[in-house]
Amino acid sequence: MAKKSVVIVQDSEKKNADLADAINGTQDFEVVGTATDGIGGVNEILEKNPDLVISELLLGGGDGFFVLDKMNEAGVRSKTIIVSAFSREEIVAKAFERGAAYFMAKPVSCEVLIQRMREIAAPAQEVKPRVYGEGVKKSTVEEKISNIFINVGIPPHIKGYSYLREGVKMAINNPDIINSITKKLYPMIGEKYDTSASKVERAIRHAIEVAWNRGRIESLNNILGVKAYIGSEKPTNGEFIALVADKMLLERA
User: Fold this and answer.
1) Distance separating alpha carbons of residues 53 and 235, to the nearest angstrom
2) I need a labelling partner for 4 at 20 to 30 A (CA). Which of 55, 144, 159, 239 fits?
3) What span, in angstroms and rounded, lies between the C-alpha atoms of 40 and 213?
4) What is the pLDDT of residue 204?
5) Looking at the structure, do residues 155 and 72 belong to the same domain, yes or no?
6) How deeply is 85 buried, as exposed, middle or buried, from its count of CB atoms within 10 A (0-12, 13-18, 19+)?
7) Pair 67, 162 in one domain
């Protein structure tokens, strides 16, 4: 079986050499290029068109976001792992919005990194954006909900994102609450965030509209595993919350 090609973009030649040695020592991968800055990384990626890219977020001459943007502009479909000491939600969201397949928070061992590479390089497998990091409880309900929202294009900085996430968690713990969305769910979210039920409803509706305006319908269909929505169709607040909650409950079963 042919080895998968890899380009590494980190801020020092020593780090690149150490990681390349570990990767080249596997049966799965071969490093075909390295760079120590964003511009050099883009040049290597465009020239080599690798199967995978490993890129740090903080780089000279253009950061990891710059690398992802240039890959998108050139139509390069390499699966990309972003590695960073910074893992705030908005930073992770930006990486996923630009097409990253995986986000890893430092420190990361070569062993773990190579295992993640194997996971995202596996054929006939839909790769959903994922987060890994020390001190992070992987596969938590909240992380899974956040990944779904990021996938469908709901940005973390808007109020509706937090309200939706809270609504989904409530629906997971008490599925019947979806039948009392106006009388119970909105007021309970409003009480937690010190706002009115009507503002919660509007913010959630806005968050769903943002996702639909970004054309992420197919992402939601892929997550659900069925073509639930087509064209300009969009779910109501209650439908969206119920769909995500049902997805989570099925995975838990």
Assistant:
1) 36
2) 144
3) 34
4) 96
5) no
6) exposed
7) no
75 backbone φψ class: left, alpha, beta (φ>0; ψ -120 to 50): left
Q: Considering only CA atoms, which of 178, 193, 190 is closest in space to residue 236?
A: 178
Q: Which residue has the tokens 């007021």?
A: 187
Contact in structure between 189 and 165 (CB atoms under 8 Å): no
Q: Would you say 76 and 55 are in contact if contact means Cβ atoms under 8 Å apart?
A: no
At 109, give phi and psi (nearest 5°). -80, 155
Question: How many Å apart are CA 44 and CA 245, to the nearest integer?
Answer: 42
Rg value, the chain, Cα: 20
Which one-letter DSSP state was computed for residue 128? Answer: P
Q: Which residue has the higher pLDDT, 195 or 120?
A: 195
d(CA 29, CA 119): 12
CB-based contact 79:51 (threshold 8 Å)? yes
8 Å CB contact between 141 and 169? yes
CATH number of the domain to which 42 belongs: 3.40.50.2300
- Distance, CA of 150 to chain centre: 6
Q: For a pLDDT cut of 90, what percent of the chain falls above it?
A: 48
Look up the domain containing 157 and give its range. 147-252
Greater pLDDT, 19 or 133: 19
